[in-house]
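agent> step 3/5: call structure_predict on target 'aldehyde dehydrogenase (NAD(+))' (Flavimaricola marinus).
agent> reason: downstream docking stage needs a structural representation; sequence fetched in step 2, passing through unchanged.
tool.input:
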Amino acid sequence: MPYTDILKACALTAAETAGGSLRVTTPVDGSEIAMVPVHTVADAEAAIARANTAFAAWRKVPAPRRGELVRLLGEELRREKENLGRLVTLECGKILQEGLGEVQEMIDICDFAVGLSRQLYGLTIASERPGHTMRETWHPAGICGIITAFNFPAAPWSWNAALALVCGDPVIAKPSEKTPLTQLAIQKICDRACAAFGADAPEGLIQTLIGEREVGQVLTASKDVAVVSATGSVAMGKAVAADMAQRLGKTILELGGNNAMIVTPSADLEMAVRAIVFSAVGTAGQRCTSLRRLILHADVYDTLVPRLVKVYEGLTIGDPLQKGTLVGPLIDATAATAMTRALETAQAEGGTVHGGAATLADRFPGAAYMAPAIVEMPKQSAIMHTETFAPILYVVKYTDLDDAIALQNAVPQGLSSCIFSTDVRETEHFLSVQGSDCGIANVNIGPSGAEIGGAFGGEKETGGGRESGSDAWRAYMRRQTSTVNYSRSLPLAQGISFEI
Ligand code: UN1
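tool.output (status=ok):
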């Protein structure tokens, strides 16, 4: 299918994709696919004003009715899964299976949010005073800004937006300037869902801002934006957090990962191989949950490493839109250079590199296809403490499980982690307070590919935010504690006497 048809299938018009100043290229072959008009700072301020007006109306719509809008959004997404999945692939370069998977994640969170719209529970609490009762009520927080990254141009928006909408918050998206088209297509889908929902969906409820950093900064600077949820690099997250701290606004940060797998002697190695390869080379190593560090017991090292090197040599690298491709391109030449530099550093730190060369330059001269790399390291050196957004898998050896866990936890990031073992003592130890320090700790599953039902996010430099399932919805609401006196006297708490 020609690239222009992929854009057209998502109902993107010439007004949205031509004549603007933001040049969008596809990592598939490096060619230009759009010149997108960008929003100015004044446009962003106007969007916030519209969202403010929308908030006054939307917060009065009962939550289960708000859920109906998200249900309609889920239905539109089901209809558009193929079209949107293909656009995700075209714009960010992940293979079509993963592009479709991203849209499925959007559908799943819509379903979750519909149910949630009838479950925004508070507590009732026993009061120490006679004739009194205490309760908690959750009210909408206000406008939610959603800043997303190129590697997941669709799903993270939906984890935030689906919850925020049922919680009563208008949403304003600011996608990565590398992948604005997917967000524009999502906006179209939302506009259709709002039209089907009817007049209860106010104008300005769901909006998109296209632009560079200064557009995102309007969201972080405005006191009217109650919550900013940001997915991306640690540097970006620190900048967002600093801006938000100036006005004590709420943030949900989902930043870098440096995810490890420990493979113990009792592991099912066939399962481990499949999990390692999917999580290390999926999305060409550009997931925040990608497997980057493999910590192998000395007893399995000599079996597993040659097996992995062999599997890596057989991986189909190429056009991510083509069936059968397992590894697509990196997002751009800068990412490929960062990968090459990291491999050079790893070598200088004593590593032995398998794979990792640039490839397919004859067929796609404008693109950045790289063979995934396995790097055997003598120890967990400096380069292993940094996240390089590329398919590099560092491997180290261990003999004592506590040493392996200490290695795993020694990095600044704390997103995802996992252990492959069939020994319940090892797996439970890994999940215990003495085990993994990450937001996600899996057993016999790789670190990537989380389902939406759990809270998603991590500790330390990953930012501490939680999105998606479990009780992540609370971050989009404000909690109100009410003490109600239904007696005929006014006893004070803590037994204080105050006679006037
Ligand atoms: C990301 O890379 O920013 O767990 C998100 C996963 C996906 C989400 C990744 N569900 O790999």
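agent> step 4/5: record observation. The chain has a mean pLDDT of 98.
agent> proceeding.
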